[in-house]
């Protein structure tokens, strides 16, 4: 991907997020995975980030996005986790409620974030 331009900057910041389900329970189904992709894309658009890649398994998801530097990493992680959890509980309550009571969060409190990028031949 090419670097993006802001009003006073040019940037290319890629972040890899990994979110785990609470208690690492195997909650995420194939149907939920498709819905997750849509939700993540919508949240990224609101935050002026670009979703590059998304994948996951029944107990975690990987999100690679092009990050806009006007945001903080913790704000993006929090917004993604809260928006997704709220929508999952509303749109797909049966699989979620099967594993979690209403007061238990969908995601684990922690997350993994790493910057990623290609090696440059010169700086």
TrEMBL record:
Gene3D superfamilies: Transposase IS200-like (3.30.70.1290). GO terms for molecular function: DNA binding; transposase activity. InterPro entries: Transposase_17, Transposase_17_sf. Residues 10-123 form the Transposase IS200-like domain. GO terms for biological process: DNA transposition. SUPFAM superfamilies: Transposase IS200-like. NCBIfam families: transpos_IS200. This is IS200/IS605 family transposase.
